[in-house]
Sequence to fold (228 residues):
Amino acid sequence: EVQLVESGGGLVQPGGSLRLSCTASGFTFSNYEMIWVRQPPGKGLQWLSYISPSGSDTFYVDSVKGRFTMSRDNAKNTLYLEMNSLRVEDTAVYYCGKDPRGPEYWGQGTLVTVSS
Amino acid sequence: DVVMTQSPLSLPVTLGQPASITCRSSQSLVYSDGNIYFNWFQQRPGQSPRRLIYKVSHRDSGVPDRFSGSGSGTDFTLRISRVEAEDVGIYYCMQGTHWPGTFGQGTKLEIK
Fold:
């Protein structure tokens, strides 16, 4: 059974940093492209970033480019999202997903709150 | 970025009646490999999104056959043949053909 479990969310002040993790199981993690998607409270979904199976290629939406870094450790079956210079508008539930062209599998999400 | 426009944004439906949601993309979603990477997702209250339909019309495993998807190019439709109580939630379309992927605004389905 495919499982994705996000962790690392919490309360952080504007300008602060946070690292999210997504631990995968039930499939050969190193073979698959992965993405992060976020959902602000009460709002819609936003596709954020992509990483290739090896980790050599990444892509980011403009609103997080230069502030967020996506990476992976295939030996640990874990995906990461390093978030710096956080803004109030980054407050959201963050999901990892398998298959960037339409995620079949999603985690339960981890809430990031950026507030002073 | 490709803009995905859903309608309606609110959809009150009587139990047992059909429902339909449309999604229009700002450009063609045909990818260079010939596929159309267009999806429909359901998000029930308090839950993560769940993919219902991929590549326009392919139903995911476990999705009831009352859900169907159709469309081509830039116009797509999700149909529910007979709405059940468990269908309450928000439905999102999403394109994965062009980077970055983009979602529609969401359609809130409720029971009348």
